[in-house]
Amino acid sequence: MDSPELVADRRGVSTAIGYVLTLSIATLLIGGLLVGLGSFVDDQRTGTARDELRVIGQQVAADLAAADRLARIGSPTEVRVHRQLPDSVTGAGYLVEIDDGSPVRIVLRTESPEVVVEMAVHLGTPVGDTTVRGGDLVVRLDTTPSNELVIDSA
Fold first, then answer.
1. Is there a domain that residue 127 lies in?
2. Which of 106, 105, 108, 61 is nearest to 89 (CA)?
3. Which of 84, 94, 98, 130 has CA atoms 20 to 30 A from the CA of 37?
4. How far is 55 from 132, CA to CA, in rounded Å?
5. What is the pLDDT, as a whole number, of residue 8?
6. Is 87 contained in some domain?
7. 90 phi and psi angles, rounded to 5 deg
8. For 50, phi and psi rounded to 5 degrees?
9. Low-confidence ranges of the chain (pLDDT < 70)
10. Count of domains for the chain
11. What pLDDT is attached to residue 96?
12. Which domain holds residue 91?
């Protein structure tokens, strides 16, 4: 037979169950917020990287156009256009690829997050196909042998 003292005293059980339920609900709410906000932050980071790469691409296109104008004036012996660009966008390095064609294609890409931005620029001077890491760049006229514009890391 049960002791009357053990059967009558159930106050400690409700307090322990209350704590367990409170912690369980709080854990579920915080977990849901983290999952929901995680994708939001990733979307914002991708959008920011895309915007930064567009600005960098416009600066590279402007430098190529400036070097093209200088290269077509008379017969220059040296053309150099230096640009200070950031080493990374949203904390990740990026590549600048130049594909010769008509128009010249400028492709900028990051790996984390994976973002690719392309733009085109019309030039009168041929451009050598190049891939360089982001950072300080120099657009120069390579007078030997092809007389084409080349992009190098500074």
1. yes
2. 108
3. 94
4. 17
5. 60
6. yes
7. 45, 40
8. -60, -45
9. 1-13
10. 1
11. 95
12. 37-153
Q: Which residues contact 152 (CB under 8 A, 6 or more apart)?
A: 130, 132, 137, 138, 140
Cis before 103? omega within 30: yes
> What is the spatial distance between Cα 21 and Cα 39, in angstroms, rounded to a whole number?
28
The candidate with the shortest Cα–Cα distance to 71, out of 152, 154, 139, 153, is: 139
Does residue 93 belong to any structural domain of this protein?
A: yes
DSSP 8-state class, residue 136: S
Cα–Cα distances in angstroms (integers) from residue 79 to residues 13, 70, 124, in the given order = 83, 7, 15
The amino acid that residue 42 corresponds to is: D
Other Cβ atoms less than 10 A from the Cβ of 134: the count is 22
Residues 6+ apart with CB under 8 A from 139: 60, 63, 64, 66, 67, 79, 80, 81, 83, 149, 150, 151
- DSSP letters along 39-106, please? HHHHHHHHHHHHHHHHHHHHHHHHHHHHHHHHHTSS--S--EEEE---SEETTEEEEEEEE-SSSEEE
**How far is C-alpha 126 from the geometric centre of its chain's CA atoms?**
28
Cα end-to-end distance, the chain, whole Å: 90
Classify residue 17: in a domain, yes or no. no
